[in-house]
Amino acid sequence: xxxxxxxxxxxxxxxxxxxxxxxxxxxxxxxxxxxxxxxxxxxxxxxxxxxxxxxxxxxxxxxxxxxxxxxxxxxxxxxxxxxxxxxxxxxxxxxxxxxxxxxxxxxxxxxxxxxxxxxxxxxxxxxxxxxxxxxxxxxxxxxxxxxxxxxxxxxxxxxxxxxxxxxxxxxxxxxxxxxxxxxxxxxxxxxxxxxxxxxxxxxxxxxxxxxxxxxxxxxxxxxxxxxxxxxxxxxxxxxxxxxxxxxxxxxxxxxxxxxxxxxxxxxxxxxxxxxxxx
Length: 278
Ligand SMILES: [Zn+2]
Prior knowledge:
about 280 residues; six-stranded mixed beta sheet; about 20% helix
């Protein structure tokens, strides 16, 4: 959140609807926005019905500075008013106000959870939305279904004035990043960091420290960032998901992920610290 701006999450929608609201409306993974020159705007009106767009789901998210925020799913195959378009979340990053971008990231995960948890995964009965909690209950077997979050660790590995960067097979051509991977059941975050880096690159770590975290709504990860120091080993990519890895100084960094990502924040923090050393 920008300083001075406050988001208060909520679940039961307000009784009274006279205030303008932020409407985060999705069709599939695409967000409804109003393009405005090089920027994009989230619809901010009292009643979404004015657009005449049929909905399949609607969830209250909370209040941003006293204005309600809603996550919506639009019906398939509708025709949009000419001043509105549908765009992927990655495409609108940097063009939307940052607070609204992260609320959109929250909204798409709620819509996706609602869409994929209509039936109990244990017994198949239709689920019932709880009114005061973001969960769905199965009336038949009692199973409770919460929004799914997949924790993933991401780590900046340092060796003196160098950092470890690698290319995954599914990256855009030429792009390198720091290493990341999903946490497995039973692991601590630090264990996941050490295992992932050893498996992927053959490198051993010490001094694993928390850096920060970031929701990553593609589709429902939570990225937990760490820094760590090199403790031994040589880069080996056998049985690895990586196609290339190496040690880089800040003078010869390869192309990196965009500023949306915590990967970039980790790399930028290393660059800043190295500049101070110089
Ligand atoms: Zn059930």
